[in-house]
Every structure is written in C-alpha cells, then in structure tokens.
Amino acid sequence: MARTNLLYAQSGGVTAVINATAAAVIAAARERDDAVGTLFAARNGILGVLGEDLIDTAVLGAEEVDALAHMPGGAFGSCRFDLDPPERNPAQYDRLFAVFAAHGIGGFLYNGGNGSMDAVAKLSAAARARGYPLACVGVPKTVDNDLEGTDCSPGFGSAAKYAAVAMLEAGIDVASMASRSGRVFVLEVMGRNAGWIAAATALAAQTADEPPHIILMPEIPFDEDAFLAAVDATVKRLGYCAVTVSEGIRRANGTLVMEQDHDRKGHVQLGGAGQCIARLIHARLGHKHHWAIPDYLQRAAGHLVSAVDHAHASAVGRAAVEAAIAGRDCVMPAIRRLSDEPYRWDLEFADAAAIANLERRVPAHFIRADGLHVTDAARRYLRPLIEGEVYPAFARGVPDYRRLKLPAVPRKLASYVP
Amino acid sequence: MARTNLLYAQSGGVTAVINATAAAVIAAARERDDAVGTLFAARNGILGVLGEDLIDTAVLGAEEVDALAHMPGGAFGSCRFDLDPPERNPAQYDRLFAVFAAHGIGGFLYNGGNGSMDAVAKLSAAARARGYPLACVGVPKTVDNDLEGTDCSPGFGSAAKYAAVAMLEAGIDVASMASRSGRVFVLEVMGRNAGWIAAATALAAQTADEPPHIILMPEIPFDEDAFLAAVDATVKRLGYCAVTVSEGIRRANGTLVMEQDHDRKGHVQLGGAGQCIARLIHARLGHKHHWAIPDYLQRAAGHLVSAVDHAHASAVGRAAVEAAIAGRDCVMPAIRRLSDEPYRWDLEFADAAAIANLERRVPAHFIRADGLHVTDAARRYLRPLIEGEVYPAFARGVPDYRRLKLPAVPRKLASYVP
Hints:
kinase (chains A, B)
C-alpha cells in the first residue's frame, strides 16, 4: 500500500475536547504508519493551509500527545473563515491544491461544525473537478450540538456538563441565601439559534423544585408576561428562582432579547440576554437579581470534561484517519446512539455535503408544552452525554496544560496573496 | 465538666467550603461529647436565632456530615443582617439571649466575614453586660479574603483557584482563535473593595506573555488611557489580550467603572465592570471582545475546591469548637503562615472585636508599579492557597450533593415580632 500524507486542521469555535480529537488523529496515524507518511496539522484551520503554515505532528512526543488529549482550546489554532464558492474564486482553490500537492497531501481532515462541513463539501467537489486524489473527511465538533447527521456533536457533552454543574452549584448558593424580597439568579449560556446547552442545565435538578426552574431556549419566542408569571410563582413557592437562558433568545417579532451592541461592521455581539432577563425581573417584580455569563469558560473547561464526550471526540478522530486511509471522501464520522440507559453507541458515516450549513435545533418533543422547560425525553437524551469525569493532571493548583512547541515546516511555495 | 449546648450559624455570602467548616464543627462537637451536649445550627444565620428557627445537628448521620464537607452553599442557610447597636435596640438582644437561655446555649459560633465579627463583638459585650455566660466565637469565612487578623480567609483559596483556572482555560481558548483584528477577553471577578480574587488569576500564567496580561484591582484607580495603551501593546505583541477585572474598580474621582444600575432602594448593583471594560476596548481599539462573569459560580464551585482552603476551613471549625468549650470569648481562630514554600501553617486566635468591620485590601507591595498586574511577592503569597484538589463524588454526570433534611426543633418561645 502506498503511503500518503494527511493534513488535519481545527475550525470554528473550539471546545474542551477538540484536542482529544486531535490527539486521537495523531495516535491513529502513528499506528497506521503502513498507510500514513506524515501527518501535518495546519495552523489556524484553513487559513494555515492557504498560508502554507503547516506543522509536522511528528514533533510531538508520545507523552505530549497524551497530554494534548486533556487540553482545552485548539492546540493548532482555529479560525472562522468560509471558503469562497469555487466558481467565484478559483485562485483560492488553486492555492489550496498547490499546498496539498507540494506536501503530498492525500487526505484532509477538517475538525469543525456546520461551516466546516461546507468547506469539506466544497474541497471534495473541487478535488474531483480537478482530478486531485483527495479524501476529504469532516470531523464533527461543536459545543452547540447543532450538527445534523450525528446523534450528538463532540464538544457538546462537556459544555453541557459544565452548564449543568454551574446551575447545580449556583442554585445551591442562591437557595442558601435568605431574602425577604426573593432572589433571582440567571445563567446565560451559549446558543445563538439552538438551546441545547440551556436544555442540559435541566440535568442539575432531581425534582421540579430544584434549579433551574425555568429554561429559555431560542426555539421558543420569548413571552415576557408568561415568563414573569412563572418567575413570580416560583419565588412565591420557594423564595427564589433560577433561570437558564440561551444567549440567542428572541421575541415573537424576531428581535433578540439581549441588548444589541453592534460592532463596527454592524455584526450583533451577543452576550447580554442574561443581563436583560435579570434586569427585567428586577424592574417588574423587584427581586434581588444576579446573573452569570460563563462565556468561553463553558467551552474551555478542561477541568470538567464529560468522559462520554471525551470518548466520542477520540473516536471520531480515529475513525476520520481510517476513513481517509480508506479513501472515503466527503464523509463525516457520526455518533449513533444504540440505547439511552445503559448508554450504548457506535460510529457511522454521514455524508458531509448533506450536513453542511444545516442547523439542528432542539425538537418540539424535548420542550415542555409551556415552552419554559424541557421534557423527560430531553433528559433521557441529554443525561448520558454528560456522564463520567475526565480530570486533567494539576500542578501548583491549576491544570498542568502543556505549552507545546509547534514549529512550522519549511515552506515550499511562494507566499499567498489572496 | 458540665456539658453545654453550642449554636452554630452561617452568615454573609457563602463559599465553596463554608460547609466544610460546618462539618468540622459538627465532627468536633461529637468528639467532645464530654463537654458539648447538643450542637444546634440556626437557619439563615442570626435571623434563625431571632426567629428561634434551630436545627439539632444530631439529625445528620455520620455519612451526611462527611458529605456536607464537600457541598457548596450554606447548608443551614445564610443571611445578610446586621445586629443593631445594643443601646439602640435592647429588645433585639433580649430576644437573642432568651433564645440562648431557652436552649441552654453556652457557646455561639458565627461563621462569617467582617460583619459577622461585628456581631460576635456585639453579642460578646452584651452577654458580659447581662452576666450571661456565653463563649462567642467568630469563625472566619469570605471569598473576598478581606479579613484582618488572619493570613487568609477560608473560602478565598477556592474562589482564587476557580478564578485562576477560569483565566487559564479561557485564555487558552482565546489564544487559539486566530483573528486579524485582535481579540480581547475580559474576566470579571468578585471584589468590591479588594482585588484579591483578581490578583489570584495571575497564577494562571507561567510567563509574562500568558493570560492574564492585565489585572485591574479596586486598590488602583482606573486609568483609562494607561489601560488601553497596555491592551494595545499586548494585542500588537501577541494578537490577543486577556484582562481580569474586579467588579468594584473605580476611577480616580471615586465613581465605579461599571454601568450603574440602581435598585429600588438606590443600592448600586454591581456586576457590569467586565462588560464596560470590554466595550471600552472595542469602542476605542476595535478588537473583537468577549467577557465572562462567573458571579456565584466562583464562590459555589464545589467541584474545584482548593485542598489547602478546605483544610483551613475544617481547621477553623474544629478550633472554634475547642475555643467555645474552653470558654474563650470574642475570639476568632485565624490562619498563621509559617512559610511560603513549602507551605506550612498553623492556627492562632485573634480578637474578633479588633477585626470587626475592618477590610484588608491588597497591599501596595503586591501590586506592580504600573498598577496593572501583581508582583512576585503576591504570587508567593497566593500560590499555596489554591494548591491541591478536593473532588466531590459525582453521580449521573454532576456532583452528588446531598439534599439534607433539616427539621426545626420545637420552639420554646413565643414568635418574635421585631
């Protein structure tokens, strides 16, 4: 069997376990040195391919690869960058394939979400059109859990675990502080269009009286009066109320609930829904209010990784290498659920082109009829994804995340000028 | 030796380890059943004493006491309530001593911060004035680390560890996302008047180029131009910048930097400094900006407790019981540092009255000359306090915090009407 070189890259928002996928890719490629020559990693995703900024992963010792599996962030750098359509910018694709050719790349593994699957589909089509032999494999990753074609997305389980633990712990804190006027706590979690992380906070509760008492998801238009009535009833019953809100909740007219804060290009910067909700409660009901916005902490919490999520992330990395070696093109290894309890799963392969740019939202049967919480069906789906703990090593009080030295390999091509 | 009953209560903002103190109080009292009859706990701090809402801690089994030691929040409930001066409201003290007398209380253990030490001092003086035999013992607790008379405050080490880990993990995340315009991340931590938790995020870094690049503490007036210049220089050097900010930073004219959000009584609600700083950077320098506000999560993170902090919290609880048995009045067990590295410590006793209402701020020699970071002296002080990990048991993906049943003992007095 002729050996080929592979290229791995990370894309989009990083997760607590994307490096577990990277470590599995490296380990699998090393085990298959009968088929894989060099495994390169591109720095900063597809931007590193365009810039011919490549790392030979052989620089990492075995112990470093093991450590990589427990590090948050994207060790090789990530980016948010969409490829142009090939017909509009053929020069961009000329460059990508020039880099592939210069380094003997026969397989490209792109580790990302919906947008990355779009890149996989475009590159796959372009390779076929050019007659370049490339196995283009999407490797799923997103905290948002919004990828179609897979039962869940690696990265989500750990974000979900973080959010559930945050609600559990903050909820105990809030409950223990006596107040005559009532106390309200709002936890804002990620989710612009899909409420998966918010839904997962339901796993903090053992009974309906435990936090979170209300979960606001983007799938349901925000009804201010119904929401405030539910808060009021909860405070009257328990003396406090804990609310989870997805950053992207909208009113029935489509406007975002959060304060809008436009950046220089007019992009909306999210991050204010929790504050808006907390202030609304305070203004209308008069309760003491606190809000927490974990922001990046929820997707970077290497100290609180779900063992199931970690196993998923590793498995898709290994499967992607096998797929590339087998010459499977435009596919994405996906998680298939076999049973909820005990949780059993295996892998299947999905068509990356069919997944690209789709967005899986929380389905109606996972959302309680009043739109303010989740159903038992949601709990059955979510629970296994946060189970088990994988702790990093600690040193001097903090996780002992390695500082990896990742020198670029010498460039073979002229600089890229877009 | 005649046996006496003790009364334990929790006060002020709770911490990740205040229940470790409670568990140690219970365990120590059980071991000293030669001297202690019943150990009561008041529900919701001093409010529970006034309301004669008492729990006999004998209801907790040994296994529950062990579990209690690893639960965040205040298991018996806490409150923010200041006793009136005895001369202004003698009826309040009449009630307190009536409750003490009705339940045979010879020792009162109040677990709190500066305000609680004030309560200890007032109760102690009132007991002496009345000739009521009471050993009034303050038990230190605050995430703010602002108690005088002790090298550090139980509760702080775990909040500091949480904040350092948050900055480490989010910093890795931010660093891994490529951006042409530069990225800025702001972590807002607790600290209205003292920057201890903010300072502790310095422990995330191994070099000056690692997050946090800037630490803003309330001890130093916020200088917008100097700050923005430091952010700009960091982004130019590294491509991104991570900033820690205490919630209570103020400008030179004394105004809070955060957006002011007055509640109905005109009290300022803190919680917006991070957002203000992030938006300022964005408006003036144009960088992409994110901010995180862990809020209660940083003081409730039972899943990320410092082993040293946990040991401190347990030790002060045990010492408080011994002090009460010995009839020591108006004292507070305090942490005494014997050496930084290896870290060695023991306990001493401080005068609770001398501590009451003081506030220990970060000293000048812990703050870098430019006011934008900490010194090595600060790191030497802070490092031992976050060391070691104490994990709670997990069940079904989240910490297995017990739901304790804590029935009130029958009241012996008429209801209290303030």
